[in-house]
Design a protein that fits this description.
Helices cover 5% and strands 36% of the residues. By secondary structure, it is mainly beta. Strand 3 and strand 4 form a beta hairpin. The protein is elongated and about 35 Å long. It starts with 14 loop residues before the first strand and ends in an 8-residue tail after the last strand.
Length: 76
């Protein structure tokens, strides 16, 4: 896998979809068993994670965060 800048937490902290502010904490670690990386974000006492495989990251020049906790909400 090529060396890749995955994020600059000073500039590109992911934004929480619940409070519309940067999340409280970001973690990332290598996952050799998946040949990739896992990213975890924390906000409001909750955790969300995403695994990016080496296959996805192989040709990327940059990977940026989207909105955290941005899942569909039920009305009613």
């Amino acid at each position: 896998m090529n060396e890749l800048t995955l994020y600059d937490v000073g500039v590109a902290f992911p934004i929480c979809a619940i409070c519309d502010k940067p999340v409280d904490k970001v973690e990332s670690m290598d996952l050799p068993e998946y040949d990739g990386k896992i990213f975890r974000v924390y906000c409001h006492g909750k955790m969300e994670q995403q695994i990016l495989s080496a296959y996805i990251m192989m040709d990327a020049e940059e990977i940026t965060f989207g909105k955290a906790f941005n899942y569909p909400k039920l009305k009613g």
